[in-house]
Amino acid sequence: MFTAFIFDMDGVIIDSEPLHFKVDMEVMEGLGVPIAKEELEAYVGMTNPEMWTRIRLKYGLAPSVEDIIELQLNRKLSYLEASDDRPIEGIAELLHSLHGSKRIGLASSSPRVFIEAVLNKFGLLPYFDFVISGEEVDRGKPAPDIYLKTAEMLGAAPGQCIVLEDSRNGVAAAKAAGMTCIGFQNANSGDQDLSKSDWIVGSIREIRLEKLERLVPSAEAGA
User: Fold this and answer.
1) I need a labelling partner for 66 at 20 to 30 A (CA). Which of 48, 100, 165, 222 fits?
2) Which coenzyme or cofactor does it need (predicted)?
3) Is the pTM of this model over 0.85?
4) Beta bridge partners of 4
5) Which of 44, 112, 118, 108 is nearest to 87 (CA)?
6) Which residues contact 83 (CB under 8 A, 6 or more apart)?
7) Half-sphere exposure of 139 (CA within 13 A, CB side)
8) How far apart are CA 146 and CA 152, in angstroms?
9) CA distance 222 to 31
10) d(CA 106, CA 152)
């Protein structure tokens, strides 16, 4: 039985991966170590501490992980505030269709300050029963921790949850948590392998409540 729907945020609610790529490339350029977008695509879905720990080690960067994150986060918040971005097409309608009948969570690897800035900018925060950052659990995606914690706070068993993700790491986290996962093919999220998803869509508008009601029982039957 499907009782809870959990959203990723970046690349799902807001088309923000181009912003993340842009700022992260700017930061690396400023540190004297240019990095290609294609390399950054491997980190989509990870938390900032996890990503920057790996990049700092790989390139021997002098600033601390904390200093790098502060620099890029402040820049991202400034870009977000100045932008005229809107939610990805179909997101507002999907939230409206779920609201009142299903528990709704958001599980994003972004820092909480960025999550709240996005949701407040779009006026979407009231739709969510629970919001969590990957930096608030022991292990970020692709580990299942963030999704298991979200299900717990929503009062739902993992098998009752449907997750919407756009990244390989996010899909891996949802499936490791024992949840049904919809993979959203967002070209701006880079080359992401969504093949482990239970259902892959090219548009959020494909996701309708009546289809979701059938998705979980069919996934359980095929298990």
Assistant:
1) 165
2) Mg(2+)
3) yes
4) 103, 161
5) 118
6) 19
7) 11
8) 10
9) 50
10) 13
At 17, which amino acid appears? E
Annotated catalytic residues are 8, 10
Tokens describing residue 117 = 């800035």
Angle, in degrees to the nearest 10, between helices 17-30 and 65-82: 130
Both tokens of residue 40?
Answer: 């950054």
- The encoded tokens of residue 80 equal 């977000």
Three-state SS letters, the chain: CCCEEEECCECCCECCHHHHHHHHHHHHHHCCCCCCHHHHHHHCCCCHHHHHHHHHHHHCCCCCHHHHHHHHHHHHHHHHHHCCCCCCCCHHHHHHHHECCEEEEEEECCCHHHHHHHHHHHCCHHHCCEEEEHHHCCCCCCCCHHHHHHHHHHCCCHHHEEEEECCHHHHHHHHHCCCEEEEECCHHHCCCCCCCCCEEECCHHHCCHHHHHHHHHHHHHCC
| Residue 90, token pair as written in the block | 């179909």
Alpha-carbon span 129 to 190, nearest angstrom: 30
Tokens 């919407």 locate to 164
CA-wise closest residue to 153 among 127, 130, 136, 175: 130
